[in-house]
Each structure stands twice: as C-alpha cells, then as structure tokens.
Amino acid sequence: MVPTPRSLLLRLDEFLAAAPPSAGRLYASALRRLVVAIDATPDRFTDPQHPLRTTAFLVQRFLAADAALVRQRPDDVPGPWRTALVVDPGLPAMRLLLVTANAGLNDDLPRALLELPGWDGSASRMDHAAWTELMADAFADAACPAGAGPVERMAALRERPLLRRALLAAGAQAWPNAEDLLHHRTAADCPDAADVDPFETRSRLLATLTVGNIGELLTRHRWPLPRWADLMVVRLQPA
Predict the structure, then answer these.
(1) 3-state secondary structure labels for all residues of the chain
(2) Domain limits of the chain?
(3) pTM surpassing 0.85?
C-alpha cells in the first residue's frame, strides 16, 4: 500500500494522543512535522513517493519498536530503539531529540533507502537530499516543544543552527551507509558466500555503533551541544 500524508498523520496523531511525555513522543512530533512539510512541498521531489516511502519506513519502525516495548517484548525491538525509548523523559528536549534521531537516522534510514525501488539512481539521490533538508528543519523545530519556557526557547533558538547541521550530516551519511549495506547484501547472495552472512554482520555493526553513540549522549552530561552534535553521525567504514 502506497503511503499518503493523511495515512501517516493519522498513525502519528493516534500515537501522540495516547503517549505520555517521553523521548518517543518528541520523535513522533518531529516525524509529524516532517510529514506536514513533505505534503506542503511536493514540487521539491522528482518522485513524490520517495519522501513518503522513506518517512513511512521510519514511522513504522518506530511505532513497532514502541509497541513491542509496551508489550514487554524487548527482544523484538532494534537495539538503538531499545536504548532510546527508555531514556529519562525529564532530560532536555535537545538531548532527547539527539538520542531518538540517532536511532531513526543512523540505524533506520539506511534500511529505509534499501527498501525504495531504484533508490541508488541519481534522481533518487537528489530526492534524498531534499528529504534530508526538510527532515533537518522539522527535527530542529521539534527540539523546542510547545510549552517550553522562555529560557529553554532561547537556548533552542541559539543552538538550532548547529543542531540542524548535525541532522543534515546524519541524513547525508545514511546514503553511503545504505550503499555499504547493499554491497554486503549482494555479497551474501553470491553462491560462494561464506557461512557468516556479511549483510547481517554489517547490519549488526550499524546498530552497535548507533547504540554506542546514544550511550555517549546519555553519559556525557557536561558536554556542550557541539560535542553532542559530533555524535549524530555513524559511518560504516570499508570492511
């Protein structure tokens, strides 16, 4: 079924209506802002389905992870989300956004690209760049939620440019990471492939690196935003 802005907004609104204050709620609000932005600017994309399919994958993966945690089935939750969704909701919104965006952009987004038909073409790459621009704006805006006090709002405005650059970098890096995963998935399909699945190995590495970033974001309490922003990008190095 082809996703539509309406179908995605319905799913996110249903979640937001029931969700208590949490890192997951903040991430869902960021995704909602992104869907609204995509719906308002269809002329930015060569293929209007590219941004919708990409975002739908992120929505589905996040909602499935949250539902599995609610059902107390942590083994069904990807490692990055298993870490990101249980963080203290009392942390500053900027930190919560960085934590959840790590799971969504570093672990989910490369996998989302692999599911797109013909995703590795030049037109698709331009659409991904346009999607990344909208995502960075939507997520950066979500880091200053409604009801924030004047001090928090001033801090969010001051730090927004740096946060946006970090989000842009993470979104852009998802493309070469997806290419890396595709290379190893192709190798896994070869008749002479080793018993160890290279794609699964690479996939686990991506998740492990993302969990490491999230852990650093949660333990380096005294770091300023520039140091936190450095932890927004996961790079799969050549094997």
Answers:
(1) CCCCHHHHHHHHHHHHHHCCCCHHHHHHHHHHHHHHHHHHCHHHCCCCHHHHHHHHHHHHHHHHHHHHHHCCCHHHCCHHHHHHCCCCCCCCHHHHHHHHHHHHHHHHHHHHHHCCCCCCCHHHHHHHHHHHHHHHHHHHHHCCCCCCCHHHHHHHHHHHHHHHHHHHHHHHHHHHHHHHHHHHHHHHCCCCCCCCCHHHHHHHHHHHHHHHHHHHHHHCCCCCHHHHHHHHCCCCCCC
(2) 5-232
(3) yes
